[in-house]
Structures are given as structure tokens and as C-alpha cells.
């Protein structure tokens, strides 16, 4: 990274350098083990300046979460062009998601792991981002279901459940892809698209998976 | 609940009562807000006895995570009978999973939310349980892929990715089902089975979802 020390740099630029250094340090060391000394050194500024700009380690971490959450949701939205068929929009969105998480592995670790592993108020910041992604996917599935001629009325509750499942699958897969050598963003997106769309597509065409009769009876007993 | 105060109760029984009370309190109040006074009162024992048996709030929370993680993985394994077709095994496993998380909402909150939201060493306990579930699903998909005659060799990396996606989807969906009125365990299991199996089934039959040509080119640029 090698940030340059300069007294003439505008505050906004310096703050971004501090956040770059903080995301990298929090992502690699974890919230507790990360030291403000290390972050200041990596950003090429003095520790008092970090405190002056970002106030405390907790506030710095919150600022990291907000910046990374905003960058991720913006990347996904920017990757999708409305007006295209739903499967194409989902494919574009998934590629944008996995490309962003692959290119910003420390940012993703901060969002997916660190922010949820270190209590409130951090977890609430990530929950807000997650809700936005779920809402986005819910709308995508609802539009696709309305477009599908054979089964125009996929129930609302089912759509919400499918969106939750898809977002949970994407989160899980992004963490796995970043931790597994040789898995590209495109491969991760294709894996999820295969998993999700072939299934969703069948569902919208009125071809759900049918439970076997015996399992049905067992299930009925289990849930009553 | 209404635990009965009795001096003749064996230690193991008392400990389970304390853990019952602790899971309920941690699940509903959160780790930090939960008080040892409240847990002791709910268990019908004195606070010193809780400390004598479980040592500290942290150790008590760890004991809750271990017990709930063991109960969940055992419920899933018990729900699945080997020797049946893979889709039937997955359906049985998903029903066992969603039935268990629906019947033990506080236990699931402790595992999925509280344990991951309050740092180490708790998060590591849940990670171990998750690895076991992923390994179980990976094996299920690998067996199904070998059985499928049209595409006997789904690549190992693809199988691992699909298992990660499926477990992430199940976790996400269980939290949503418990938070959403009127969603039964059977409906949650059916939603995920529809989502997952129709997709996986196509994949194993050699019918992956095909990306559009233009998206392909965009993706190739994005990941290089």
C-alpha cells in the first residue's frame, strides 16, 4: 500500500487512507487483536491523528462497516440493469457480488465475520445491509414470478423465503470462495446460479420438487 | 417451565435445568443483557449453585452452545436414513433441521446469532458444528452425483461450493422462519428443497443453467 506522508492532503483523502488501513487490519487480525498503532502506521499517519479524525477504535470499526456495506450494495446494484430478463439480472447481480467480495476480501471479512462476531452496535449495521440485499432479491424473484406465464402467482411468503435462502447461500459461498484457493468470482457466481436458478426456474414453471409419499407422512407427524 | 426446588435432585439433572434456563435467557435477552440472577431464578436454584456448577457466565454460555450444537447435529443425523435415494435423504435432513430449529428457537438464536455476535471463543464452537453439517451435506451431494447416471463426475470443488451454499441457505431460512409468523418447519424445508433440489437435480442430470453470451463476456472482463 505504502501511503505517502504529506501535510497537504485533504482530510477526506486522509480519512479514506485510514479506513483502507483499518479494513485491512481488522479483516486480517480481527477486531480485538487489531491495534490502533498498526492502523496508523499502515495509513502513514500518527495515532493521535487517527483518534482526532475517527474518535475511537469502536467508531473507526463502525465507519469501516458502513463504508464496506455501502460499497458492496452499490456494486451489486450497479452490476444489474433493469429491463433485462430476471435470470440475466440475477446472474449479473451474483457476478457483481462475488467479484466485489473477491476483490475486497478484507472488507468482506469485516462485514461477514468480524462485524457479526463482535456484538452490537456492529451487528446492527450489517443487518441493515443484509435487509437491503434481501429486499433487492425479493423484488427480483417477485418480478420473475409475475413474468413466468405458467405460474404467475408464487405466494408472497414463498418468495420471501427463497430470497432469504439465496442471500444466505451467497454469503456462505463468498466466505468459502475467499478461503479456497483457485475459486474465481465467476465460478462462485456460476455455482450459485446453477444451484438457485435451475431450481427457481422450475418452481416458476410450475415444476416443484415433489416429496415422496412416505416422507410426507413422517413430516406431517413431525410438525404437528 | 416451573422447575421444582429439591435438594435430592442429582447434579446432572440440576445442570440440565440450569442449561435450559440459560439457553432461554441468552436466546431471548442476548448474551450481555442476560443476568445470572435471572437464569438462577428461572432454573429454580440459587445463584451460587449456578457458579459452583458452571463456573462463570462465559463457561455457562459455552456449555449452552455445545449442548445446542450437539442436539442440532444429532437431530439432523437421526432424521436421515442412509440407503435411501439422495433427494429423500436431503428432504429428511432438511425437515429434521427445520423441525429442530422451530422447536428450539432459543437454542437456534444462541447458535446462529448470539454465539457469532459475541466473539471468541464462542464463534469457534459454532464453526465446528457448521463444519460438521457442511461435511454431511457434501457427502450427500457427492453420493447423489455418483449415483446420477448422466453426469457421474460433478467436480469436487463444485460439490463443496454447493454444500456451502445449501448450509448457508438453511441457516438463513431457519432464522427467517422463526422470526416470521405462520411459517412451519415443513414449509421452510419444502422451500429450500424446491430451491435446492430442482437446481441440484438439473445439475446432476447435466442441465446446468447457461449464462447468456453477453453476460459471459462481461464476466470474463470482470474477473481478469
From TrEMBL, chains A, B:
Keywords for this protein: DNA-binding, Transcription, Transcription regulation
Domain of life: Bacteria
GO-annotated biological processes: negative regulation of DNA-templated transcription
UniProt-listed SUPFAM superfamilies: Homeodomain-like, Tetracyclin repressor-like, C-terminal domain
Chain ranges of the HTH tetR-type domain: 12-72
Residue ranges flagged as DNA-binding region: 35-54
Protein name per its UniProtKB record: TetR/AcrR family transcriptional regulator
Originating species: Streptomyces phyllanthi
Amino acid at each position: 500500500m505504502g501511503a505517502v506522508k504529506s501535510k497537504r492532503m485533504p482530510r477526506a483523502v486522509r480519512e479514506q487512507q485510514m479506513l483502507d488501513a483499518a479494513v485491512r487490519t481488522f479483516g486480517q487480525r480481527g477486531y480485538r487483536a487489531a491495534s490502533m498503532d498498526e492502523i496508523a502506521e499502515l495509513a502513514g499517519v500518527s495515532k493521535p491523528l487517527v483518534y482526532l479524525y475517527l474518535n475511537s477504535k469502536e467508531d473507526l470499526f463502525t465507519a469501516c462497516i458502513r463504508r464496506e456495506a455501502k460499497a458492496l450494495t452499490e456494486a451489486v446494484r450497479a452490476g444489474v440493469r433493469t429491463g433485462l430478463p430476471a435470470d440475466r439480472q440475477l446472474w449479473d447481480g451474483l457476478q457483481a457480488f462475488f467479484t466485489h467480495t473477491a476483490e475486497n476480501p478484507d472488507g468482506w471479512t469485516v462485514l461477514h465475520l468480524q462485524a457479526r462476531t463482535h456484538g452490537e452496535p456492529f451487528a446492527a449495521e450489517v443487518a441493515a445491509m443484509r435487509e437491503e440485499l434481501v429486499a433487492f432479491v425479493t423484488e427480483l424473484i417477485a418480478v420473475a414470478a409475475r413474468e413466468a406465464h405458467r405460474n404467475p402467482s408464487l405466494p408472497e411468503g414463498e418468495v420471501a423465503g427463497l430470497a432469504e435462502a439465496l442471500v444466505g447461500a451467497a454469503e456462505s459461498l463468498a466466505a468459502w470462495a475467499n478461503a479456497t484457493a483457485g475459486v474465481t468470482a465467476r465460478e462462485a457466481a456460476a455455482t450459485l446460479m446453477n444451484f438457485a436458478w435451475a431450481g427457481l426456474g422450475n418452481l416458476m414453471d410450475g415444476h416443484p420438487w415433489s416429496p415422496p409419499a412416505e416422507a410426507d407422512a413422517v413430516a406431517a407427524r413431525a410438525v404437528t
